[in-house]
């Protein structure tokens, strides 16, 4: 079984959207005097920025912020390791429990990263992967993944996150009541249209 775990969550300054851009989208800047002024809803908007990024990551399978990831397997696969995320910027460690129960580290020359495929894949450099002890989490891959200056985040994903933020800010419950429709109305989110082309695993 494969287990993909994020080791670190981004701080506020690492989020793909700034507070000032979210304010501009929500038209909150018009209420402020000066660039450094605080808005009463700043704390809420900051939470919505993180929530929008998490939703976009869960929907697309992408890592929108470059940070540490940990991926575990009960054994090496027959061919490649599907890292279940993209883009991967660096493999920092590949370790496994050998048949004697000892932890072994693979050198960087023993594997190769395919970051063209989405999700990214990790292949043995030559031949096949080594044998492992039959136990849970016998294989662990530590790596960095996320958009950065080399692979910038697509503007459509930023716009999708802004739509999500606007939706959550204006509608603070799942269903709204409207007299026009004579009942309840679930608001559709246009962000799905913008995010779908970037989805790396349609099974998600």
Task: Describe the model.
The chain has about 200 residues and is α+β, with helices and mostly antiparallel strands. It has two domains: about 1-65 and about 150-200, Hypothetical protein yqbg (Orthogonal Bundle), CATH 1.10.3230; about 65-145, no CATH class. It is built from four helices and ten strands, in the order βααβββββββαββα. It has helices spanning about 20-25, 40-60, 155-170, 190-195; strands spanning about 1-5, 65-75, 80, 90-95, 105, 110-115, 120-125, 140-145, 175-180, 185. The strands form three sheets. It has a five-stranded antiparallel beta sheet with strand order 1-2-8-4-5, with no helix packed on it. The longest helix has 19 residues, at about 40-60. The radius of gyration is 21 Å and the shape is elongated. The model has no long low-confidence stretch (mean pLDDT about 90).
Write the layout of secondary structure elements.
Elements: E1 2-6, H1 19-26, H2 42-60, E2 67-73, E3 81-82, E4 88-97, E5 103-105, E6 111-114, E7 121-124, E8 139-145, H3 155-170, E9 176-178, E10 183-185, H4 191-195
Antiparallel strand pairs: 1-2, 2-8, 3-7, 4-5, 4-8, 6-7, 9-10
CATH architecture of the largest domain: Orthogonal Bundle
Compute the CA-based radius of gyration. 21 Å
Helical segment count: 4
Total domain count? 2
